[in-house]
Amino acid sequence: MGKRLIILGAFFFCQGFSQERSAFETYGDIFQIAIPLYAFTLTLVKNDNEGTLSFLKSYSVTMGTTYTLKYALDLPRPNGGGQSFPSGHASSAFAGAWFLQRRYGWKYGLPSLILAGLVGLSRIEAKKHWPIDVVGSALLSLGITFTFTNRYTLSLSKGESYLLSFKVSW
Fold it and tell me: pTM of the full predicted structure?
């Protein structure tokens, strides 16, 4: 999972889709959606109904809180616009990444958190956000995700069991 996501991220990082936007900004635009979409899809592939519900709750609350704060605070952006804090792109990417880490562990979490960090950096580089906007988004997503999400455990159906064995070699 991680290698594929990183390769895809590197591809979009190196490709530009328009002259007005840098390739890095385009990467941020794509991966703000790709990371949470991957998290949601993974819950479906794993037939993890509890995870699907947890993701939908945590993502919805994260984005609702993000946009409530954006409009309520209306802080200036580095490029002169408004509604800087928190970053919507970073909140979305980190909501997906923190969900993957919390629900499925570091195997999924570490690559997605790196990619989410790059989304945040793309917003700073494009002069759309200050560093505090991105850090605030990451922390907001972390807090909300950890509130709504529990670690994934494989549940057994009634009468189903797994045999554990240990092997010692000398």
Answer: 0.81
